[in-house]
Amino acid sequence: MTPFTKYLKLITIAAGGLTLCVHGAQVPQRIDIKQLSKTVEDVVVPLPNEIFGALNKLGTVNWKEHVRNDKGTNFTERPRIALLLGTVIADGFIAVQAEDAPTVKEIGQRVLALAKGIGVGNSITPHAKAIIEAADKRNWDSVRQELDRTQNSVQQAMNEVHDEKLSQLVSLGGWLRGTEVLTSVVSKHFSVDGAELLHQPDLLSYFQARLQAMPEFNLPILREIGDALLQVKPLIEAIIDECLGKSPLARKFSAGSDCRTAIDGCRLGR
Amino acid sequence: MKEGFQVREDYWGGDLGSGEKKAVRQQLFKGNEYWFWLGTEVERAKISVHIYDSDGKLAEEPDGWEKGHFAAAHVIPKTTGSYFVIVNVEESPEERTHWALVYGFR
């Protein structure tokens, strides 16, 4: 993080919640979205933790049942490692939700190993160490912060060597894992508010577009994920647009799991 | 951090001319609460940040603020979906004004 952004963060602490100066000029109550949509370039991908925070507010979630600590498959292709890195960081957030310190520590080690696998291990070592130390102290806010810093450091390191596409795959991996957990929770304990959390149309389009712009990676898994995103999008639109019933949703949620199993190299539909 | 907000480590930035705006598309989740903070090192610049929903309707709480070269917007989304974060360099003595945007959620 640059010194300027650190300063910006200090300002946010100092001024958070204070109304220092109400908006001077009249703020337009409406803007022309159609015009705006042509010029929007940046899309912010949420952290998995944002989804989990919203889920927590809907009711008690048994996070322990979503914790994974399997070592998974070792890949050599950098795009697959990048995807997996994103999902493992998301697994870290899940383990934090479950307050499972041993798993958090294992995930810290795994993240470091994966980062080394794609050549960004140096930037991750201090974060992996901090994750393990914070987990030992059960300081969950610090673990969350370090997981966020880890993802950010990995992506910055990739962007610096013009590996922006790998950076996007890290985001995709994290988003897929977060969405998989979301669909699992909502499937088991359906609520309209929970189902609404699936309404992420621009992210679906964003990731589809990014995957289409990666033909050089030429990996079946990326094509499978792209296809799954195409399948899921109209299903989610139907969820949001129509009256929701539990059994149709259970069928639709399975598409989210298909994305997740594709990351680990399993076949779709298994 | 303060009052339980997790401030995202990443930030978004760019540079804009005086009077120029930029839109950042952001997924927000109902149930969460967000603050967006915008800043620039150009001390005599006047900037603002506002949040609109996917229909183009102003979606923020009234306690946002602007103080010279910093500004903030607060949103408690009524629905989950895409929102537009509009960054505006209203006035600046520089031809191009570099800005940075961070956000926190709880």
Total discrete domains of chain B: 1
The profile of the biggest β sheet of chain A is: none
State the assembly state of the protein chains. heterodimer
Rounded to the nearest angstrom, the radius of gyration of chain A is 19 Å
Compressed to H and E, one letter per element, the order of chain B equals EEEEEEEEE
Name of the CATH architecture of chain B: Sandwich
Treating each run of at least 4 consecutive H or I residues as one helix, how many helices of chain A? 12
What fold name stands as the CATH topology of chain B?
Answer: Jelly Rolls
**Integer count of domains of chain A:** 1
Count of DSSP strands of chain B: 9
- Uncertain spans of chain A, ≥5 residues at pLDDT below 50? 16-22, 243-256, 258-270
Shape verdict of chain B: globular
Distance between the termini of chain A: 42 Å
The helical percent of chain A reads 55-70%
Class by alpha and beta content of chain B:
mainly beta
* β-strand amount of chain A: under 5%
Biggest contact = A-B, 61 and 55 residues
What value does the average pLDDT of chain A take? Answer: 81
Task: Please give the count of helices of chain B.
Answer: 0
Q: How many E-type strands of chain A? A: 1
Overall pLDDT metric of chain B? 94
Tag the structure with descriptive keywords.
heterodimer, A: 270 residues, mainly alpha, 12 helices, 1% strand, globular, disordered C terminus, B: 106 residues, mainly beta, Jelly Rolls, 6-stranded antiparallel β-sheet, 3-stranded antiparallel β-sheet
What does this molecule look like?
The complex is a heterodimer of chains A (270) and B (106). Chain A has 12 helices and 1 strand, in the order ααβαααααααααα. With 270 residues, chain A is an all-alpha fold. Chain A is globular, with a radius of gyration of 19 Å. Chain A starts with a helix and ends in a 7-residue tail after the last helix. Chain B is mainly beta and 106 residues long. Chain B has a single domain, classed as Jelly Rolls. Chain B is 0% helix and 58% strand. Chain B contains no helices and 9 strands. Chain B has strands at residues 6-7, 12-17, 21-28, 34-40, 46-53, 65-67, 70-75, 81-91, 96-105. In chain B, the strands form 2 sheets. In chain B, strands 1, 2, 4, 6, 7 and 9 form a 6-stranded antiparallel sheet that branches. Chain B is globular and about 40 Å long. The relative contact order of chain B is 0.41. At the A-B interface, helix 1, strand 1, helix 3, helix 7 and helix 10 of A face strand 1, strand 3, strand 4, strand 5 and strand 6 of B. Strand 1 of chain A pairs parallel with strand 3 (21-28) of chain B, so a sheet runs across the interface.
